[in-house]
């Protein structure tokens, strides 16, 4: 098959370490599964600030645009915490989302059987939880204009942002959620505050229209965001796909991730629109965890989320379902065999570091 | 002592039932503790829509303004779900907050020892949790202008809201949080998305300034809202006071409530500014739970949250600390004695309805 162009952006903190373990998996796949990738590497986040003075240099954006898929590590750290708003490492990921039109963030929150006990929730509340949060990522209050901090005539400061959605921005991400639900348990819970926000009112209306016109076979439930946070905590099994805007999706996807108790295990994908002529779509894959500066460089980080992000990449960007499953199964088996990194350590298991975990997965493959 | 003017607004659903049990407590206090209240009653929510065509009639606002404290039930129900945005029952509470200047919503999330097992979280994760969420309630994206759903020239709909804070709106609610922390475990966790929102950037700056200038003895921690949702779920005991804006405070206070597993037990207070001449402040007290239309009228609702809201009222509006503690202790004892309403039912306990629970509390008093 034609070469698959992959851009690797390790970023900061534990990003480079965990990405190193994915490299082993890629090597294995190249040799044993005859998958040939054309791999480029780029700078993002603090690493890019240090080298090039910008958290997301034009060069990185250009590379990302010409790649078939981007594998992203994580960005940020205390070193860059005092930089002004416009120069922070987080802008790396924000700009990539925006410039590549990556509007749909897919965040699975799955409780694997061997890790049921890692959760802070009771075993019978979380056993079998399998939620997919679909978060809109290029609109809403994180990007809306006008925004700023200004001085009022009387000297007081006023900070403001604009929460805004046009109907087709809502419809396209809703379609991603409904499509996913069809391959899962056929239910979408759409989340907003339609009772107090005008954008929420439009969100609810448009999602309902899309469902009625195009997905009458999928069950749609509307839920207020505050209630959804409650329900996630108390009865998470009721959810299949959760659909939310940039802000509610951000908070609720992190909550869904947290209830699994194994953040170091969770990948995500952010997808753009399908190009009607080429059939391709931009896509970026990244673990849910951050750059974890406190443990960076110590060789103790869990590489699984980054590896599982690569599995998502195989599935979504290259249609390599079988290879994706192979990798996912290998990771599950390694866990079932008792290996644990520090973040998911349990009594009776064997505590290992980043590279032993990575090696074990490759051996299992 | 002079008469204490109390406005009772039972509202919809289970509101009137659970308020009935508070009436017994008030009667008991009048007779046994010589507390004389001057009690007025008013309409709000769906009940007010049905009777007077508005979810918050001017008459109700006027009564609330002249009362020393408002005891609120809950509003809403399927009957009014199809009403347009501007006429919904929820506007009852929104308008009261706004017109009375009730800017600080205090929401305790406490795990009582006899109810540890009611939580969906593991016992050792939640035992001893005692969090106070302070939510700003008259500003931010639930009120900011401009807002609306408009048609673009090309016919597409655009929904928008404005997230906005002026610095003194932030400072005054921060002071409420710091004052509370001083009486508790001396720590405030202030929550925003300063990494992506301009209003969040101002929020973080102002809270920091207030702490530095006026509360150098209180520990201040800044946390992103998504991370806070995670931390609440995985390690709730780290929190003392959580301070958030209208939106983040809404979602996170509900999450904090949910992790206790006993929504039917949780009260809240919403306070206005202290009037410099009279020393008084407007205040409204309400349970965290909603109107629960599915169980309304069945006599099975848990009256404890409404009773505990009354305890908060005694404490905050009338300085009756001893009477508040009396009531809280009576409720704890009834629970320790094994009585449970359906929502907090556990094996081995005695399941009772609304009025048996209310009677038991009065007997315990
Ligand atoms: C780093 C930050 C800008 C980002 C966001 O809020 O979108 C992160 O929290 C995420 O969830 O991907
Ligand atoms: C009823 C609704 C408008 C309200 C809010 O969002 O403020 C409620 O959710 C609350 O938390 O008190």
UniProtKB/TrEMBL annotation, chains A, B:
It is an enzyme of class 1 (oxidoreductase). This is 3-isopropylmalate dehydrogenase. Its cofactor is Mn(2+); Mg(2+). SUPFAM superfamilies: Isocitrate/Isopropylmalate dehydrogenase-like (SSF53659). Binds 1 Mg(2+) or Mn(2+) ion per subunit. PANTHER family: 3-ISOPROPYLMALATE DEHYDROGENASE (PTHR42979:SF1). The record marks 142, 193 as: Important for catalysis. It comes from Paracraurococcus lichenis. Belongs to the isocitrate and isopropylmalate dehydrogenases family. LeuB type 1 subfamily.
């Amino acid at each position: 098959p034609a070469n698959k162009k992959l851009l690797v952006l390790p970023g900061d903190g534990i990003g480079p370490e965990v990405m190193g373990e994915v490299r082993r998996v890629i090597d294995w796949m190249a040799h044993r599964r005859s998958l040939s990738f054309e791999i480029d590497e780029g700078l993002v986040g603090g690493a890019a600030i240090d080298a090039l003075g910008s958290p997301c240099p034009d060069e990185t954006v250009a590379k990302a645009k010409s790649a078939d898929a981007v594998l992203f590590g994580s960005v940020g750290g205390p070193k860059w915490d005092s930089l002004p708003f416009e120069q922070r490492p987080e802008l790396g990921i924000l700009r990539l989302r925006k410039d590549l039109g990556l509007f749909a963030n897919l965040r699975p929150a799955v409780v694997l059987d061997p890790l049921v006990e890692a959760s802070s929730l009771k075993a019978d509340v979380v056993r079998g939880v399998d939620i997919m949060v679909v978060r809109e990522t290029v609109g809403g209050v994180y990007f809306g204009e006008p925004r700023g901090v200004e001085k009022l005539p009387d000297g007081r400061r006023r900070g403001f942002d604009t929460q805004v959605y046009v109907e087709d921005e809502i419809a396209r991400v809703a379609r991603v959620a409904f499509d996913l639900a069809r391959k899962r348990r056929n239910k979408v819970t759409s989340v907003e505050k339609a009772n107090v926000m005008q954008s929420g009112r439009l969100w609810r209306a448009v999602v309902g229209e899309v469902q009625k016109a195009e997905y009458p076979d999928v069950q749609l439930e509307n839920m207020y965001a505050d209630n959804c946070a409650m329900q996630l905590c108390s009865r998470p099994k009721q959810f299949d796909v959760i659909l939310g805007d940039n802000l509610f999706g951000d908070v609720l996807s992190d909550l869904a991730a947290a209830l699994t108790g194994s953040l170091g295990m969770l990948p995500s994908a952010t997808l753009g629109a399908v190009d009607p002529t080429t059939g391709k779509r931009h896509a970026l894959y990244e673990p849910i965890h951050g750059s974890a500066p406190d443990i960076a460089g110590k060789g103790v980080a869990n590489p699984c989320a980054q590896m599982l992000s690569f599995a998502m990449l195989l599935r979504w960007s290259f249609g390599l379902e079988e290879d994706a499953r192979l990798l996912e199964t290998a990771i599950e088996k390694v866990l079932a065999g008792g290996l644990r990194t520090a973040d998911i350590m349990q009594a009776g298991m064997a505590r290992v570091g980043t590279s032993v975990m990575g090696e074990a997965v490759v051996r299992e493959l």
